[in-house]
Recover the amino acids of this structure.
């Protein structure tokens, strides 16, 4: 039986993998994690999809167990600022799309929207975020969403199995380094062997499979399955096994970032329960509020902006609080390995692939990959079909997210700099071009978006298209023949619920100050 796993590389990817495999297989699996004491983590991935809660549930962890240790906060949406024009913003929230008479409420909004704000007319969460509120009351009870928290029949499902069945009202924001530290303790307590050492060589046998890794101080370390969590270096999958890398740079040119971790008085500042993406002249700036600090960074394309100008712009954006904070400059490798599982090696995290962090996909990619490893864990015959299924699933997720992110730039109305003007003439995936033509006359639905699981439902595409404002959207012609009364009642119900919640929910900082 194959049961010896060697994970090369720590950080969020390595320790999420180690902890998940231990939770899945217990003492029936032997896990060794080797990480360098000298290679720093990229550490820009601090925001998540709402599906990440399934990871913590699988490990048996409650929010009270891990959130205070990671300075974590709630994320109810992504807030996009200045993508349409300066001063404009909209939300892409975590909230189930309502439908009326078989049509999504956004379709009715195009026909007869009460205001010019689709996100506030069609979703409750947008107003909750604007008010800086928590999705949980001070006693810990969850906002009254159409969701059965902790339902037994939903336990143990993968993210793809959950999609369409539930929509949890929030995701998380946390310090990635602190989560890795927390999961290190969790994993070691459950039997993971932790070795701090530098891998000097990856050894291959006559077949080209990995036979072991040679470390500086611990000699040779061998296993059955090797998991590459070495980040953009891709020490095993790309360097040792020479697996080709497929670049996405032709459609997603942002290849650089500069990040700051800015200590702030969050009681005074308040916590906006969302991740904000603010468009800039040559990219965009993320803002992630945590307990005790704000994580922020400028994602840009080096063909349009120098690292020095990017850092200067970011510091000016943050203000005086950033004056004495050191900056972390990051060169991003955008794209994916052709195959993320080759022979007896699986790449997870940045070594597998990465797109820019616009919709907080980095930790989602890790979570999805380790679910698929557990689902397709090999035995002695190394059935190649398991590798095929795994690689197909990873490729679909990466390629689907690529399409979704390209849509942001194609749909953005902004064209005031060369960077933004070029987003309208740059090549886009052929399949996205075909879909865009359909969406101009029929809003996206599950049948017209990227056809394989990639973590994003159809309403996400609607939010981007309606919010960015660069592509004219039209309601379904059938709505002209339909009675609008039911849609009007739904819009009114959202207004009523919004009013009740904004009058009763606590401020996000107040909630975390009590529960941390």
């Amino acid at each position: 039986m194959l049961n010896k796993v060697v994970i090369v590389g720590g950080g969020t990817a390595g320790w999420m993998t180690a902890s998940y495999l231990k939770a899945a297989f217990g003492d029936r699996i032997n896990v060794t994690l080797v990480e360098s004491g000298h290679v720093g983590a990229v550490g820009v991935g601090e925001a998540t999809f709402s599906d990440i809660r399934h990871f913590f549930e699988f490990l048996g962890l409650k929010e009270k167990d891990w959130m205070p240790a990671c300075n974590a906060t709630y994320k109810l949406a992504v807030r996009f600022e200045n993508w349409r024009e300066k001063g404009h913003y909209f939300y892409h929230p975590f909230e189930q799309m309502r439908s009326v008479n078989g049509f999504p409420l956004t379709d009715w909004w195009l026909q007869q929207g009460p205001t010019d704000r689709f996100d506030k007319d069609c979703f409750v969460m947008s107003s909750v975020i604007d008010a800086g509120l928590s999705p949980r009351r001070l006693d810990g009870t969850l906002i009254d969403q159409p969701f059965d928290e902790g339902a037994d029949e939903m336990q143990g499902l993968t993210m793809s199995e959950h999609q369409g069945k539930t929509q949890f009202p929030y995701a998380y924001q946390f310090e990635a380094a602190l989560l890795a530290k927390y999961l290190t303790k969790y994993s070691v307590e459950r039997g993971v062997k932790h070795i701090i050492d530098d891998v000097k060589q990856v050894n291959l046998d006559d077949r080209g499979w990995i036979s072991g890794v040679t470390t500086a101080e611990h000699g040779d370390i061998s296993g059955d399955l090797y998991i590459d969590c070495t980040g953009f270096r891709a020490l095993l999958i790309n360097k040792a096994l020479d697996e080709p890398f497929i670049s996405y740079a032709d459609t997603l040119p942002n290849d650089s970032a500069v990040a700051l971790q800015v200590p702030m008085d969050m009681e005074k500042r308040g916590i906006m329960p969302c991740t904000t993406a603010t468009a800039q002249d040559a990219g965009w700036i993320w803002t992630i509020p945590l307990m005790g600090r704000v994580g922020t960074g400028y994602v840009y394309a080096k063909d349009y902006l120098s690292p020095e100008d990017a850092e200067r712009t970011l510091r000016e954006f943050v203000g005086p609080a950033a004056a004495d904070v050191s900056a972390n400059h990051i060169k991003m490798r955008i794209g994916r390995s052709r195959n993320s599982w080759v022979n007896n090696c699986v790449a997870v995290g940045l070594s597998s692939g990465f797109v820019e962090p616009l919709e907080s996909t980095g930790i989602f990619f890790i979570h999805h990959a380790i679910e698929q490893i557990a689902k397709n864990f090999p035995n002695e015959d190394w059935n190649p079909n398991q590798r095929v299924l795994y690689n197909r699933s990873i490729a679909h997720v990466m390629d689907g997210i690529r399409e979704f992110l390209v849509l942001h730039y194609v749909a953005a109305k902004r064209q005031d700099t060369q960077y933004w003007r070029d987003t309208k003439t740059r090549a886009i995936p052929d399949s996205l071009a075909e879909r865009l033509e359909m969406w101009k006359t029929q809003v996206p639905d599950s049948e017209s978006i990227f056809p394989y699981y990639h973590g994003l439902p159809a309403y996400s595409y609607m939010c981007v298209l309606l919010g960015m404002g660069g592509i004219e959207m039209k309601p379904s012609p059938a709505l002209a023949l339909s009675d609008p009364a039911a849609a009007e009642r739904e819009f009114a119900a959202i207004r009523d619920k919004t009013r009740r919640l904004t009058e009763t929910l606590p401020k996000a900082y107040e909630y975390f100050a009590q529960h941390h």
User: Anything to note?
Assistant: The first helix runs from residue 11 to 25.
